[in-house]
Design goal:
The complex is a heterodimer. By secondary structure, chain A is α/β, with parallel strands linked by helices. In chain A, 32% of the residues lie in helices and 16% in strands. Chain B is globular. The chains are: A alpha/beta, B alpha/beta.
Chain lengths: 465, 212
């Protein structure tokens, strides 16, 4: 048998049938559902008189619209409230497992799937959300889908798919102290560009990736979509298995042993062919900060804002000029001279316990700068929040002047009340710095949790000691 | 789904790379539980000078006169031409619904983001990948002659336009079939229900923990 990549193995194990033109009907093991991209799908099922094919494969949670402040009075915005109620009603009507807003297990869909052990190695995982690539960290094939596909999976447990090409992104050697998973993935995007992975499934490998915790691997895979790849993945190993063991939805007893035996094969075979291979030297990666309106517009903390006049590609140069105008930045400005108005620590990229620990370490014993209007810490789930409080992290943040909020997507996309006002500048641990992403006219700089905390303390971007 | 066979229409130029789905339909409009009504808020941040929201009447707002889709004849455009990586970012199908609701039937670009590309086919919006030189020629023609029209024929996979030899484009056979006939692909998949059940039976023996 010829050598296969991890992606080839995951794909082959899930093909139900293949069409002549190469399209395959792919079986979906886990379907995560949230309130924004599902109402029209459920409505479609109702109109056609269809039922979910496998209700037990679904895990649903409201996350995009939920308030991160006191929830005892429910959701104030009537449109948002209706959308969350619609999810609750749909889950009841179709008999689907949902963690409602008041449940301690509620949180960002890409945090709770792994936290509950609902994301397992070897699975196919989909969700009506582009950051579903997160779950690939477990040696799973996970990708985001649109609402029509949400309906398709609900009705048939399958998706019609064309196989992507294989890309290996290998981060070789050891990363320096203070360089996090977020810095690694931003450096990757800076190198290959936001469309560099379009049409590919990316496997992240190399010593620096395998040295990462599961939280770190999730951060890396989460942003595969920011490089254009629907799916990112990391081979399963002991770190993966240790993380999954004992979680509520993970297999138990004999099934656990059987599963672990099967998961040993979830890596690319030696000699497997990739259509494209990218290598980065981990030691050369420094903490990263985006300066523009696309995640590929990224430099290191000790760099300056780049100059469009030095860019030879005219479409790119024009994009850079538009970005500088939107961001109100001048070429040549040192990144460390850029002051921030708000700081956001959270999102499906960086709201897990390890992220909060890293930010708290920087904030401990310090005070936020007077020029920063708001510093928010939004844990990824109720259980992350509980764990952080057990470790006293909430007290560290509160003492330093940060706000300690309830879990949800929050200011990553500003569907709830947490947002930037026009012209405000934010150091954010989220994943997208698009125009208006965190609020119309808002200016986003993507950074790691440690750098976000450092910016809150200094009032401008700063390296960590 | 609306079928797509042949279409002739005005081309609007959107001279930007990486047009993301947040730009196509900003987040405040995603709270809707319907599939329709997104057209008036397509490209909302670029299209209006003041703030918009689901509870704000667009008729009372100030349109941005510099935005291409506010300028005749492009306000009647049904084909959009753009630069690389169109539709990147969020998976929101609302972006496709907004473009369709505005009146677009096709988008032409040198490359598309995968999820947007997929979503388009599910809604009768045809995304066409063309070589950068052809995209360049279309931008040039549209700039020189606003109101420039092209004809897209899906059956023959051909684009015809004045002053240019007909251009062939690629499309997957299955997607083409569904689009030409406006087919519901869930019904097509359910024709293979027995095969799905057979797969589940086999898989649940190999990997029972996935079914417990």
């Amino acid at each position: 048998m010829s050598a296969k990549t991890l992606y080839d193995k995951l794909w082959d194990a899930h093909v139900v049938r293949s069409e002549d033109d190469g399209t395959a009907l792919l079986y979906i093991d886990r379907h995560l559902v949230h309130e924004v991209t599902s109402p029209q799908a459920f409505e479609g099922l109702r109109i056609a008189g269809r039922k979910p094919w496998r209700a037990d494969s679904v895990m649903a949670v409201p996350d995009h619209n939920v308030p991160t402040t006191d929830r005892s009075a429910g959701i104030e915005d009537p449109v948002a409230r209706l959308q969350v109620q619609t999810l609750d009603n749909n889950c009841q009507e179709f008999g689907l497992n949902e963690f409602v807003m008041s449940d301690i297990r509620q949180g960002i869909v890409h945090v709770i799937g792994p936290e509950q052990g609902a994301t397992l190695p070897g699975m196919t995982v989909v969700c009506g959300d582009s950051h579903t690539s997160t779950h690939g960290a477990f040696g799973a094939l996970a990708f985001g889908i649109g609402t029509s596909e949400v309906e398709h999976v609900l009705a048939t447990q399958c998706l019609l798919q064309n196989k992507s090409k294989n890309m290996l992104v290998s981060v070789d050697g050891k990363a320096a102290d203070g360089v996090t998973a977020k810095d690694i993935v931003l450096a990757v995007i800076g190198k290959i560009g936001t469309a560099g992975g379009t049409g590919y499934a990316i496997e992240f490998g190399g010593e620096a990736i395998h040295a990462l915790s599961m939280e770190g691997r999730m951060t890396v895979c989460n942003m595969a979509i920011e490089a254009g790849a629907r799916a990112g993945m990391v081979a399963a190993d002991a770190t993966t298995i240790d993380y999954v063991k004992g979680r509520p939805y993970a297999p138990k007893a004999e099934l656990w042993d059987q599963a672990v035996a099967e998961w040993q094969d979830l890596h690319s075979d030696s000699g497997a062919k990739f259509d494209k291979e990218i290598h980065l030297d981990a030691a050369a990666i420094r903490p990263q900060v985006t300066w523009g309106t696309s995640p590929e517009m990224v430099v290191a903390i000790d760099d300056v804002v780049p100059d469009p006049d030095q860019e030879s590609d005219s479409v790119k140069a024009e994009g850079m000029r538009k970005a500088l105008a939107y961001m109100d930045l001048k070429a040549g400005t040192p990144i460390k001279d850029i002051a921030v108005d708000k700081v956001f620590i959270g999102s499906c990229t960086n709201s897990r316990i390890e992220d909060l620990r890293a930010a708290a370490k920087v904030a401990a014993g310090k005070q936020v700068a007077a020029n920063v209007k708001l510093e928010m810490v939004v844990p990824g789930s109720g259980l992350v929040k509980q764990q952080a409080e057990k470790e006293g992290l909430d007290k560290v943040f509160l003492a330093a002047g940060f706000e300690w909020r309830e879990p949800g997507c929050s200011m990553c996309l500003a569907m709830n009340a947490d947002r930037l006002e026009p012209g405000e500048r934010c150091a954010s641990t989220s994943n997208r710095n698009f125009e208006g992403r965190q609020g119309a006219g808002g200016r986003t700089h993507l950074v790691s949790p440690a750098l976000a905390a450092a910016a809150a303390i200094a009032g401008h971007f700063a390296d960590i000691d | 789904m609306q079928a797509f066979t042949q279409h002739t229409g005005i081309v609007a130029p959107m001279d930007r790379a990486n047009v993301d789905t947040d730009a196509i339909i900003p987040k405040q409009f995603l709270k809707s539980i319907k599939r329709t009504g997104f057209g008036p808020n397509a490209f909302d941040d670029w299209r209006y000078l003041d703030k918009g929201g689901p509870d704000i009447d667009n008729a009372t707002r100030r349109p941005n006169p510099d935005f291409v889709l506010n300028q005749p004849p492009f306000d009647k455009a049904t084909i959009l031409v753009a630069r690389e990586n169109f539709g990147c970012g969020s998976s929101r199908e609302h972006a496709v619904w907004a473009l369709e609701d505005f009146g677009f039937r096709a988008v032409l670009a040198p490359s598309f983001a995968d999820i947007f590309f997929n979503n388009s086919f599910k809604n009768g919006l045809l995304p066409i990948v063309l070589d950068a030189e052809i995209i360049y020629a279309i931008f040039k023609a549209v700039t020189q002659k606003p109101g420039f029209e092209i004809t897209i024929d899906l059956q023959s996979q051909t684009i015809t336009m004045e002053g240019h030899t007909p251009v062939k484009f690629e499309v997957d056979a299955f997607r083409k079939h569904c689009l030409l006939h406006g087919l519901d692909d869930i019904a097509l998949t359910l024709q293979h229900a027995d095969e799905i059940s057979a797969y589940e039976k086999k898989r649940s023996q190999q990997a029972p923990w996935l079914f417990s």
